């Protein structure tokens, strides 16, 4: 990360959120992402209908809401894995409309998702090298395209090894990703995302499938992303994680932003209790159906391949 990025001002990061309005769609002093009038329908269902949202730079923002609220669809739209029916959004003031996921990644916005069976067939170090290309599927990365990163192979491998050491995965370097535990896969995903040195890291359910022993370590790694000046936006059902590490929480229900604020204020907000916590208070949904998540990821990758 360059010096400009890590330089903090009082309007950047968690400090800048002090006194920010808790009305849905409130303005932030230093937004890295600004989205307007984003809608996405599937047949007769409106999955996302976000009037306005701003994500504060250098802070950790949680996106929460009941199942089917539209969180993952919103992630897909922001990162180019899906196209909205309407709306516009920017990263650092630059429009991302119609920009392919790997270009979005190279512009500084990277997302993680549940590891797929496809990536499970690659070794840990191969997965890391894949990260250097942005977010391409295995088919793109395969032999004919190796020349794209071949010249920089040494540099890429050095960076990959540094990240593997940081995430305590260096001993797993030559293992297939499929042999890793759920938590180790999450760490690998996070490490891989950092290969492009992103300014914004988006994590989709980072705690799902992670055993309690690795949860603390994962939390520490997420905080370290913020400590080095990055912005984190994550979708999560694990309320303990949301409470522990979020500087700001945005709540979605039925496609709309219904509340936002600090974790304390959001969890005491009647609109949130009605929309979400009433049904899911403190439930740990980390046992979410793995197969469903994997199917979602495979669909995302297929969409990306089709878009090429
Ligand atoms: N490709 C699709 N085709 C049809 N409907 C879809 C598609 N993707 C999502 N939906 C629907 O859009 C709505 C929002 O789904 P989404 O997965 O974004 O919610 P979510 O908040 O991420 O839920 P969860 O917490 O369960 O992951 C749901 O009703 C879902 O069934």
From TrEMBL:
<protein>
    <submittedName>
        <fullName>ABC transporter ATP-binding protein</fullName>
    </submittedName>
</protein>
<dbReference type="GO" id="GO:0005886">
    <property type="term" value="C:plasma membrane"/>
</dbReference>
<feature type="compositionally biased region" description="Polar residues">
    <location>
        <begin position="1"/>
        <end position="13"/>
    </location>
</feature>
<dbReference type="InterPro" id="IPR017871">
    <property type="entry name" value="ABC_transporter-like_CS"/>
</dbReference>
<dbReference type="InterPro" id="IPR051120">
    <property type="entry name" value="ABC_AA/LPS_Transport"/>
</dbReference>
<dbReference type="InterPro" id="IPR027417">
    <property type="entry name" value="P-loop_NTPase"/>
</dbReference>
<dbReference type="GO" id="GO:0005524">
    <property type="term" value="F:ATP binding"/>
</dbReference>
<dbReference type="Pfam" id="PF12399">
    <property type="entry name" value="BCA_ABC_TP_C"/>
</dbReference>
<keyword id="KW-0067">ATP-binding</keyword>
<keyword id="KW-0813">Transport</keyword>
<dbReference type="Pfam" id="PF00005">
    <property type="entry name" value="ABC_tran"/>
</dbReference>
<feature type="domain" description="ABC transporter">
    <location>
        <begin position="33"/>
        <end position="279"/>
    </location>
</feature>
<feature type="region of interest" description="Disordered">
    <location>
        <begin position="1"/>
        <end position="29"/>
    </location>
</feature>
<keyword id="KW-0547">Nucleotide-binding</keyword>
<dbReference type="InterPro" id="IPR032823">
    <property type="entry name" value="BCA_ABC_TP_C"/>
</dbReference>
<dbReference type="GO" id="GO:0016887">
    <property type="term" value="F:ATP hydrolysis activity"/>
</dbReference>
<dbReference type="InterPro" id="IPR003439">
    <property type="entry name" value="ABC_transporter-like_ATP-bd"/>
</dbReference>
<dbReference type="InterPro" id="IPR003593">
    <property type="entry name" value="AAA+_ATPase"/>
</dbReference>
